[in-house]
Design brief:
Helix content is 11%, strand content 64%. The chain has an 8-stranded antiparallel β-barrel. By secondary structure, it is mainly β. The radius of gyration is 24 Å and the shape is elongated.
């Protein structure tokens, strides 16, 4: 009987300790839009998505520190009448570090606002090119360039890739509603790093001395705390 009582006491202690733990985890997923901004780099929006697992350390009823590991798609689409259509798809692993504030707005319902920096590394993605065919004069006649093809977004142009830099960093701003264990949020990111890479050299060759593409995205997410 004494052993049973000790076992029950231990289970109750573990349960209470976990319930009072300042650390919590969340799995989330969402969809939204992304595009590019910067000098000579504005683009149309394209579909984007995000999957991730986050951790939160709660200081008190209001303030918390949040971080996450996200798998996110970004990029943009550009269409020029004389050139054609270019759809850039970028896949990143992201690490945001956010300060969060939580406010009670109803029974089991809270408003969450968070902000802070993020860093990211490009891990994949294809850029689709649908270029208008043109005849270019050469010393031996004419060659035709154009058509539809795909290239890897990241990596050197000399290796047959688009030439974008893998490193990205910027600022995050989010707002959400937490109801019991569910979190519905709008995650916004503004990239502050020029991801152009080798494309900058091509832009200069074409006459654009200032070419500085940066990421921008907004994604609606749903998360579950556990």
């Amino acid at each position: 009987m004494k052993k049973i009582a000790l076992t029950l006491s231990f289970i109750l202690f573990v349960f209470v300790a976990n319930a009072q733990s300042p650390v919590s985890f969340q799995a989330k997923a969402g969809v939204g839009v992304s595009s590019l901004w910067g000098k000579n780099a504005d683009s149309n929006a394209k579909f984007a998505y995000k999957l991730g697992v986050s951790m939160e350390y709660t200081f008190n009823n209001t303030w918390a520190l949040q971080t996450a590991l996200n798998f996110a798609s970004k990029g943009g689409e550009d269409k020029e009448d004389q050139i054609g259509t270019v759809t850039m798809n970028e896949l990143y692993l992201e690490l945001p570090i956010l300060a969060a504030a939580r406010f009670n707005i109803g029974t089991n319902t809270k408003l969450i606002i968070n902000a802070g920096p993020y860093i990211a590394c490009g891990v994949g993605g294809k850029t689709k090119l649908d270029l208008i065919e043109k005849n270019i004069p050469t010393s031996t006649g004419y060659i035709t360039i154009g058509g539809k093809f795909d290239v890897d977004t990241f990596g050197k142009i000399s290796d047959g890739n688009l030439g974008c830099n893998r490193f990205d960093a910027g600022a995050c701003l989010g707002i959400g509603i937490e109801y019991q264990k569910f979190v519905f949020a709008l995650d916004n990111q503004l990239g502050l790093v020029n991801i152009g890479g080798d494309l900058g050299d091509i832009a200069k060759y074409l006459g654009d001395e200032s070419f500085s593409p940066k990421n921008i995205s907004s994604v609606l997410t749903i998360g579950y705390k556990f």
